[in-house]
Amino acid sequence: MYTIKTYNEIAQKGLDVFTNDYKINTGENPDAILLRSYNLHDELIPSSVKAIARAGAGVNNIPVDRLTEEGVVVFNTPGANANAVKELVIMSLIASSRNLFSAIQWTKTLAGGGEQVPSLVEAGKKQFVGTEITEKKLGVIGTGSIGVLVANDASSLGMDVMAYDPYISVNAAWQLSRNVKRAMTMEEIFRECDYITVHVPLTEETKGILNRDSFEIMKENVHILNFSRGELVVEDDLEIALKEGKIKTYITDFPTDRILQMEGAIALPHLGASTKEAEENCAVMAAKEIREYLETGNIRNSVNFPNTVMPYIGKKRFTVIHKNIPNMVGQMTGLLANHQINIANMSNRSKGAWAYTIIDVDNGIPVEVVRNIEENILKIDGVKRVRVIG
Ligand SMILES: NC(=O)c1ccc[n+]([C@@H]2O[C@H](COP(=O)([O-])OP(=O)(O)OC[C@H]3O[C@@H](n4cnc5c(N)ncnc54)[C@H](O)[C@@H]3O)[C@@H](O)[C@H]2O)c1
Ligand SMILES: O=C(O)[C@H](O)COP(=O)(O)O
């Protein structure tokens, strides 16, 4: 029996992935945590927790570094909400070009105008004259799951699209339309584009990339869209650039009190992933990642440990989280050899400073021998966690 603790509301379809062997939100010692944007940084995470799945993309709400040191596997759900975000970004591109947000607000103010409404509309509409997006230049910073979709669809709508991503994955590169031009630097995007949209994770490197220096080299009246994270922008600098009219609109999914008071800033209440489809996709994917890890030790879509998938055929399985240093596998297999135990299958993967090893052994080993091996693997210098499955 496993226990899952949830933070945030999780789509029922995702919770349904947890069958009878699971309890949700009961007891003090959960095996895994499932959450969306809830801030885990200040939470005490019990040592019973082996895995944390973020039903979504961004993991900046999770203390990943600390959890890695504790051998807790953190997952996210790559691409599961990308279409939802893309649709909102494309809508916002058009809405900002056509001054739709303020036009809708103004039109509402005519309520109660009786028969005058049609003529008031005709007289007032000129204040909302917009521009078309066709043939305008869009810069996409970050071409991962969302950025690729935005770039391709904007290109289909007739925009001239350029994209910057120094770490683009092979998968994303395959998906990107050949009409999308490659920018070699972020500055190229800043200098040349009429619209700029950011689709990067919040990291030390991306924090504050939208700042005074970048605004300074941008075109006059640029539209900026930020559906990634609020901290990518330096608010002091944004306020000045909006006041000076350098930035025409800043559309963000991450309002702060200050941004809500800036003229030219349009804020949505973090709606990017809030569609029925995206919520279900993310919840199902996250729940499956947890189940697979707890039941088989396989790791798929982890942000802190190497993806390691070895078919589980019901044999006794040792899974070991350890430092990525020499002679770890040798020491583990040595312990098995001491007991004349045959290894049926094995996988060892690394990611940066950490590695993960799965060893399947033939069935029928006495319980006390298994326990002894488990204890001795844990004693190896550099080993963080050992689990025996089956
Ligand atoms: N508004 C929302 O509701 C919502 C929903 C989903 C994701 N997001 C945010 O959007 C981000 C992107 O989501 P995704 O699913 O596309 O993630 P992703 O991991 O698929 O793509 C991120 C891309 O950014 C690139 N990148 C990283 N550092 C970079 C840098 N310094 N310069 C340029 N590119 C860089 C990576 O190479 C990758 O291709 C998430 O991290 C999250 O913060 C917001
Ligand atoms: O990173 C993400 O996936 C988004 O910001 C979605 O967050 P949410 O699950 O809280 O809507």
Automatic annotation (TrEMBL):
Its EC number is 1.1.1.399, 1.1.1.95. The keyword Oxidoreductase applies. It catalyses: (2R)-3-phosphoglycerate + NAD(+) = 3-phosphooxypyruvate + NADH + H(+); (R)-2-hydroxyglutarate + NAD(+) = 2-oxoglutarate + NADH + H(+). Keywords: NAD, Oxidoreductase. Gene3D superfamilies: 3.30.70.260, NAD(P)-binding Rossmann-like Domain. Pfam families: 2-Hacid_dh, 2-Hacid_dh_C. Pathway: Amino-acid biosynthesis; L-serine biosynthesis; L-serine from 3-phospho-D-glycerate: step 1/3. Catalyzes the reversible oxidation of 3-phospho-D-glycerate to 3-phosphonooxypyruvate, the first step of the phosphorylated L-serine biosynthesis pathway. Also catalyzes the reversible oxidation of 2-hydroxyglutarate to 2-oxoglutarate. This is D-3-phosphoglycerate dehydrogenase. It comes from Pallidibacillus thermolactis.
